[in-house]
Amino acid sequence: MTSSEIRKAYLDFFAARGHSVVPSAPLLPENDPTTLFTGSGMQPMVPFLLGEPHPSGTRIADAQKCFRSQDIEEVGDNRHTTFFEMLGNWSLGDYFKREQVAWMFEFLTRELSLDPSRLYVTVFRGNDQIARDEETVAYWKEAFASVGMSAEAVDFSERDGMESGRIFYYDEKKNWWSRSGIPNAMPVGEPGGPDTEMFWDFGAERRLHETSAFASGPCHVNCDCGRFVEIGNNVFMQYKRTESGFELLPKQNVDFGGGLERMAAAVGDDPDMFRIDLFDRARSAVESVTAKMYGANSDETFAFRVMLDHLRAATFLIADGVLPSNKDQGYYVRRLIRRAVRFGNKIGAKDAFCGTVASAYVETYREAYPELVDKSEIIVSEMTKEEAKFKASLDKGLREFEKSFAKTGAVLGVDAFNLYQSYGFPWELTEELALEHGQVVDRAVFRDEFKKHQELSRAGSEQKFAGGLADHSAEVVRLHTATHMLHCALRQVLGDHVLQRGSNITAERLRFDFSHPERMTQEQIRQVEDIVNEHIRKALPVHFEIVDLEEAKRRGAIGVFEDKYASLGGKIKVYFIGDKAAEEYFSKEVCGGPHVENTSEIGEFHIVKEEPVAAGIRRIKAIVNASTTNS
């Protein structure tokens, strides 16, 4: 099966079992200031797992785009990627363990035709407050018995390894899920529960014996020796932490996440994820520009993997609106492209190649993610510009390196970091240049400088992204509703080309990015303020309705990320500001909430700043004076 066939088979399988198939959420989280990217299939679903009703019902399935920036340095082996697709299905207070275990076993062994004798699972061992998950073990035993296999459940022991087990009890560090970690770390009121993970065995001969950490000692499914790969994780959100311990949740949820690429590797029985079909076109493009063959030697293979992963991730991020820059999400796109260029140069890529590789990915994913086709021109353009810019920086950095070395006769760790920070010079390049000059760079000093830089960046990021809609305080809710009114007023004053391009809301202010080609005049800013304040003073009621997409469009609702609802086939939530009885509305917008019940609760609205963000994108910062509230 191809990866596209696996994706389709999964979604069809769960659609046939009553699930609404929803499209992927964007890689930039909507109204979530706690993180820069969507890093898991669960992330967009958290509000619904915590109790908010999902517009499409209690059974949901999707294929979610994910990006994990923290894995950039891990890329280069046969299994780590920064971008991946997570296949997911959810039960929101509907079915539970029995159905999920049976369905996953059926999907893996029948739909994907994976050999059940090469499947292994792990479950929660229990602790002093929560019993071991023997219920899930019983269902796994039933599943294996359905194909004539006896599945023994054993307590995992570092000393004994696999023993003769098929099902392994692991502790809370491996088989427990909550947002805050292990059970004892959970605050009162926080939900969590045991999980059960599924592993594919590539065979004992695939174990990395040459790696000293795995050359001795017993092998087991979680040892990361290269023999096993986790292909899915079923989370059973079952408990809530209380003052006295744990109690069962009134509505128990299922959250499954399985990596598409890892499933494809298992189906192909090749642990090298970069050999699956999703990389075929891009891999051929890299082979063409480097005149090298993938897999010919380990150093070149490492470089290939970095290039293939990083340029795929950058392709999807740019398509979702993240352009290379020195700040926020754009910093990671820049880093991905520059690291790919560095490794491309290392293995002989003389000509520009990023746009070519990006085009290969657009073609590969054109059916599953047609937005890549729509954005292909800007994807290739941004890739090409960033590649050219970095090559120029490389030349400047080389000159700076030679000047610094001529002055001191050494290559200091602080010099290596300055080259990295000022010119985007990778550590590896500085290290290689130093060796050519008979020097060794003090990596510890470089790491110290880098750590200081990270801490400063993290502090800045935490300040910048503090608050927002993760905080549902009255102040934030007032500003959130004001954002909808601002959006509508901007469209009245500037035109219907105005669309939201991002927002961040704290208790102190709102920040709203929108599409507009030029600076607003003072008169336009005043008009927008007046329109918003006029409708605040009108004390308009605010309510939401759950409707289907066509109904929302017919009634003139606008959507911040409307594309993600295009193939929903279910329901969406629309907030209306205005007279429901007369059906006279000032604002109609797709949104998850929350909002005030009446505009009189907002207070006086005031724009404090209007500025550029990027080409064709402007930003407004505004506040409300709650002391003038009429409620």
From TrEMBL:
Its cofactor is Zn(2+). Residues 1-631 form the Alanyl-transfer RNA synthetases family profile domain. One of its GO terms (cellular component) is cytosol. One of its GO terms (biological process) is alanyl-tRNA aminoacylation. It is an enzyme of class 6 (ligase). Its EC number is 6.1.1.7. Pfam families: tRNA-synt_2c, tRNA_SAD. Catalyzes the attachment of alanine to tRNA(Ala) in a two-step reaction: alanine is first activated by ATP to form Ala-AMP and then transferred to the acceptor end of tRNA(Ala). Also edits incorrectly charged Ser-tRNA(Ala) and Gly-tRNA(Ala) via its editing domain. HAMAP family: Ala_tRNA_synth_B. Consists of three domains; the N-terminal catalytic domain, the editing domain and the C-terminal C-Ala domain. The editing domain removes incorrectly charged amino acids, while the C-Ala domain, along with tRNA(Ala), serves as a bridge to cooperatively bring together the editing and aminoacylation centers thus stimulating deacylation of misacylated tRNAs. This is Alanine--tRNA ligase. It comes from Candidatus Uhrbacteria bacterium RIFOXYB2_FULL_57_15. The gene is alaS.
